[in-house]
Write a structure and sequence with these properties.
heterotrimer, A alpha+beta (222), B mainly alpha (192), C mainly alpha (571), A: 222 residues, alpha+beta, Immunoglobulin-like, 5-stranded mixed sheet, 10 strands, 36% helix, 27% strand, elongated, B: mainly alpha, binds heme-A, binds dinuclear copper ion, binds copper (II) ion
Chain lengths: 222, 192, 571
């Protein structure tokens, strides 16, 4: 699988793994039973099929038991999924280190970084197109907006994904754990250029990030 | 072109005449259509208190008059059904014509009302309220028109004593059109 | 029996009338016979299926070999790519799965299986097909108007779908919407017919629990459709006004809400997937019962479970919108309902599997298709669980994992299930047997490539490949050689699969011309359609409609020498 570069990437992968195990068990059991029955009860000369209604207790238990056990598995999956969901989507860290704004439009991403003073909507904000710069091990809150149609902000290595809706500002958060340069994708169809709406996220260590802020501030001060 | 009636049409395993069953199912599908419009409207209306201003430009008196017209026409539809039950096709047709008259009155009043509003600048694109106003009432008006046309056909048949059971069916449909208006009237005219 | 005698009389009367009807080619176009209308739906569905498959071929070529000059199409521009996938999805669901599974088999089977001579409203039935045909024509016209076909995905999310400036296919998107709306009207008309026919026109003696499951499933599907599509029709009217008049129902700047459409769409969209699933399950269980010579394991259980699935399906819609900006707390509710729906569906699967127990299984071509449906659908079903779990869907949403999930449900339903039904009822429809060897070649030639197409797509989805991208070279992490290799494997497998469809059409042609005569009941099945001639004449049972004495699945009854017991045999 692709690298895990955010604090919650591993927990999302673990839910996926949990589901894979539980569901995989049933899948293999059901398919195994299925093919075994096909082989075991293949037509044989002179052997007539059995007449079963399906409500005789000794056969019906083969349906009722699995069916309740599936329900039990569902409960485990729900608990796992909701926990992760709560952590990723339903809360915002109250000790976030910085806020950034992400704006989608046909067909590019504009990223508004807080700049040297670490406050958004001040004079030293850094605007970039299709390049997002963040510092490793810092918690970011993002405000996601759109200027025209729906877009969707997705960073696969973070496992995060969120639709951008015109007229709204949707909040979310992430904390990178690994430096590097990765894909940002637009994953909601947004017109002809949807296929080229790619951006890059640059996860830098403190030194690199400070350097970048310095160079960008002189270059593109707005 | 002559079409044979299949045996299937004449059977009734449930004991309910097939035509009536069909009308009920038709209405079930219509209920969810209007449910969709009204549900969307209500959600938006609650989210936009400022639409009350736009709503205050609707003419409650005209709306009330149209409500009265529709209720009366529902009543004549019931009378038509009663006449049809007794096998009196001519009388049933007469009452159906009265009902159609109600429908036409409703539509005429509606066109007057819309003309005035559009001339005042309250077109379908004026704001969200007016968009819903014309869409919901327009969808309803389409049903009134369709009902009036079908009623004309049913009345012509009933006059010659044919297909009298259809008088009841169009009546059920007409009551539905009426009930939809009963929902639309307070939501579009009274809530301000 | 007095009432059968009168039945025959009335029918004779009706038959005399028929000769005043239209003649020549009009006889087919203007027929009100349910079997003829079924054929019209079937052939329109097959034609549209070929168009949908052609589109899949073109855009799969483009994703695997970006920029290639696709033979039979040419270069694929980004706009064309969007339009191709949009219309591929729309066609496959609304013009292939629905008309074939629900309308064609519903029309063919319901009157024949419940012992009626036609639908209760034959003219409404004909109107339903005519509206459907019109909708198909409107859709096809929409590809060729200036600007090209609509390219905003089959979900048509506004504002993209609403504003010409954004989608750049002004006319195309309006025509697309109009076509879909007309198609809904056609199925509402058809659905009312199916429901009332099943309720009222059953043969004398046929109780509710004597109705073959496939009829129940098609009718429950029709009810589901009817009750869920209304809000979307309302939503479509609003979208149409947004497109043409410039209203702002979905425009946030003017007080509208783009997410409203998503709710209306998925409130219909999720029940819709069960609308096509149920008939396929019904077909499967009927075919399996016949060829396993087994009574269905728990007829009532199956029926109640289906109803439960139908009811639950109205409460899961927002699992398509987990990350679409809805209130995050809502996701928890929808995760729970979505996972709950796995229970009745698991039960349906278990019932089908358990029906094999104690059987005497014959692997004929239709049986192979039915078994394959079960085996493959399980993959589609269990992968749905990954998506239903909100926490995991954050990653999977709109990746190829979703895509592979729903092709593993839709393909079994719309293609495998259809082939099961088609090969099973072919003798009844055309009076001749299909060639079994050719049938099996076609079966393996379809099933094996199918898995080779979509398993790589699961892998790609897990690797982060997202949907609706005409060229992955723009995304460095998705442009690796390994990933392109998987895409190419899938595309080559598709080509192989398409080639094997030639075997199917050849088989149809040869069997239709020279196949062995089928006789009334070639499969030794119980249900009523096998008690009349193949193909059934006008009026289905000219010598009088049948009476019913028992349930549809009395196979292997211990008191009988024969292992089947037709429903109309007085003992
Ligand atoms: C007929 C088609 C069909 C069917 C039957 C299903 C069935 C299911 N689908 Fe699927 N789905 C689609 C067609 C279908 N789907 C389509 C077309 C889309 C994408 C639309 C788009 O965006 O374009 C989609 C997308 C989709 C999503 C949204 C994904 C996203 O966009 O992020 C979700 C999320 O919950 C989902 C879930 C499910 C579930 C839980 C089922 C369940 O019904 C499955 C239940 C079945 C089983 C579970 C198997 C049998 C059970 C067992 C073997 C027992 C073991 C099980 C457990 C322990 C749980 N589907
Ligand atoms: C029933 C539904 C259905 C079916 C059967 C298929 C079949 C196929 N689909 Fe499709 N697909 C969708 C529904 C379906 N699809 C939907 C809803 C979307 C989403 C669109 C969107 O994003 O908006 C989609 C999108 C989609 C994509 C994603 C494009 C993208 O996001 O960039 C891809 C990519 O590979 C794809 C591939 C295929 C392939 C290779 C097949 C092959 O299996 C095709 C092979 C076809 C045949 C072999 C047909 C032969 C059959 C007949 C001729 C009829 C026979 C009939 C009788 C006997 C009666 N599909
Ligand atoms: Cu922006 Cu897709
Ligand atoms: Cu769903």
């Amino acid at each position: 699988m692709i690298p895990q570069a955010s604090t919650y990437a591993a927990s999302i992968d673990n839910v996926i793994l949990l589901i894979a195990v539980l569901v995989g068990f049933w899948f293999i059991a059901a398919e195994g039973m299925f093919f075994w029955l096909i082989w075991r009860f293949r037509a044989k000369e002179g052997v007539k099929s059995e007449y079963l209604e399906g409500h005789e207790p000794h056969v019906k238990k083969w349906i009722t038991w699995p069916h309740s056990l599936v329900l039990v598995c569902d409960v485990f999956i729900i608990i796992g999924a909701v926990q992760v969901w709560y952590n990723v989507k339903q809360r915002l860290p109250d000790d976030a280190d910085a806020t950034i704004r992400i704006i989608g439009q046909q067909w590019a991403w504009t990223f508004q970084h807080p700049g040297a003073d670490n406050d958004l909507d001040t004079a030293d904000d850094i605007f970039t197109v299709d390049d997002l710069h963040v510092e490793v091990d810092r918690t970011y809150i993002f405000q996601l907006q759109s200027r025209d149609v729906l877009h969707s902000f997705s960073v696969p290595v973070f496992r995060i994904k969120q639709d951008a809706i015109p007229g709204r500002s949707i909040m979310g958060w992430f904390e990178p754990t690994q430096t590097g340069e990765y894909d940002v994708q637009c994953v909601e169809i947004c017109g002809i250029g949807h296929g080229v709406m790619a951006a890059r996220i640059h996860i830098e260590d403190a030194q690199q990030h400070a350097d970048w802020i310095r160079s960008a501030s002189t270059g593109t001060a707005q | 072109m002559a079409f044979p009636k299949p045996q299937a049409t004449l059977r009734s395993a449930t004991g309910i005449p097939t035509g009536r069953l069909a009308v009920w199912w038709l209405l079930a599908s219509e209920v969810v259509i209007f449910g969709g419009v009204l549900g969307s409207y209500l959600m938006h209306r609650l989210g936009h208190p400022e639409w009350a201003e736009a709503a205050s430009h609707t003419n409650t008196w005209i709306g009330a008059f149209n409500t009265f017209v529709l209720l009366t026409s529902s009543f004549t539809a019931v009378l038509a059904h009663q006449a049809a039950e007794k096998g009196d096709g001519k009388k049933a047709a007469g009452f159906l014509v009265l009902t159609i008259g109600g429908a036409l009155t409703f539509l005429m009043v509606k066109s007057y009302e819309w003309t005035v509003e559009i001339l005042e600048g309250f077109t379908i694109t004026a704001n969200g309220f007016w968009s819903f106003y014309y869409t919901a009432a327009g969808l309803h008006a389409l049903h009134v028109i369709a009902g009036a046309i079908i009623m004309g056909i049913v009345a012509a048949d009933a006059y010659r004593g044919r297909e009298l059971q259809r008088v009841e069916l169009i009546g059920i449909y007409w009551h539905f059109v009426d009930v939809v208006w009963i929902f639309l009237f307070p939501l579009l005219y009274i809530a301000k | 029996m007095a009432h059968t005698a009168t039945a025959a009389d009335t029918h004779h009367d009706a038959h005399a009338h028929e000769h005043h009807g239209p003649q020549g080619i009009l006889k087919y176009l203007w027929s009100t016979d349910h079997k003829m209308i079924a054929m019209q739906y079937l052939f329109t569905g097959i034609a549209m299926g070929l168009i949908g498959a052609y589109m899949a071929y073109v855009f799969r070529m483009q994703t695997a070999f970006p920029g290639v000059n696709v033979p039979g199409f040419g270069q694929v521009s980004p706009g064309e790519y969007n339009s191709l996938i949009t219309n591929h999805g729309t066609i496959m669901i609304f013009w292939v799965a629905m008309p074939v599974l629900v309308a064609a088999f519903g029309n063919f089977l319901i009157p024949l299986m419940i012992g009626a001579d036609d639908m209760v409203f034959p003219r409404i039935n004909r109107l339903s097909y005519q509206v459907f045909l019109l909708s198909a024509i409107v859709l096809i016209v929409s590809f060729f108007v200036p600007g090209g076909g609509f390219g905003g995905a089959w979900t048509a999310y506004p504002p993209l779908s609403a504003v010409a400036e954004y989608n750049q296919t002004n006319l195309g998107s309006s025509l697309w919407l109009l076509a879909v709306a007309l198609e809904f009207v056609a199925f509402l008309l058809g659905g009312i017919n199916f429901i009332t026919t099943l309720m009222n026109s059953r043969a004398p003696g046929m109780r509710a629990y004597d109705i073959p499951l496939v009829c129940w499933m098609i009718v429950i599907a029709s009810i589901l459709f009817m009750l869920s599509v209304g809000p979307l029709i309302a939503g479509a009217v609003m979208l149409f006004f947004d497109q043409t008049l410039g209203t702002g129902f979905y425009d946030p700047a003017r007080g509208g809400d783009p997410v409203l459409w998503q709710h209306l769409f998925w409130f219909f969209g999720h029940p819709e997937v069960y609308v096509v699933l149920l008939p396929a399950i019904g077909i499967t269980i009927d075919v399996i019962a016949t060829f396993a010579r087994k009574k269905v394991f728990g007829y009532k259980l199956m029926l109640y479970t289906t109803v439960a699935t139908g009811v639950l399906s109205f409460f899961v819609w927002a699992h398509h919108q987990f990350i679409a900006g809805i209130d995050p707390r809502m996701a928890n509710v929808f995760t729970i309902t979505t996972l709950l729906i796995s229970v009745p569906i698991a039960e349906l699967c278990f019932v089908i599997i358990a029906t094999l127990y104690g059987g005497s299984i014959r692997l004929t071509t239709p049986m192979l298709w039915a078994l394959a449906f079960m085996a493959e659908f399980l993959i589609g079903g269990v992968t749905g669980i990954f998506l239903g779990a909100s926490g995991a869907d954050i990653y999977f949403h709109d990746t190829y994992f979703v895509l592979a999930h729903f092709h593993y449900t839709f393909f079994p339903i719309a293609i495998i299930g259809t082939f099961a039904a088609f090969t099973y009822w072919f003798p009844k429809m055309f009076g001749r047997m299909m060639n079994d060897t050719l049938g099996k070649i076609h079966f393996w030639g379809t099933i094996i490539p199918f898995n080779i197409i979509f398993i790589p797509l699961f892998v790609l989805g897990i690797g982060g490949e997202h949907r609706r991208i005409y060229n992955y070279e723009h995304f460095p992490e998705l442009a690796g050689e390994g990933m392109f290799m998987l895409r190419q494997i899938a595309t080559v497998a598709l080509l192989v699969m398409l080639i094997f469809q030639v075997v199917f059409f050849y088989n149809c042609y040869v069997s239709w011309k020279k196949g062995e005569k089928a006789g009334k009941n070639p499969w030794k099945a119980n249900t009523l359609e096998w008690t009349t001639e193949s193909p059934p004449p006008h009026g289905n049972w000219p010598e009088g409609l049948p009476n019913v004495y028992r349930g549809p699945y009395e196979y292997g009854h211990p008191d009988r020498k024969e292992d089947y017991w037709p429903q109309n045999q007085p003992s």
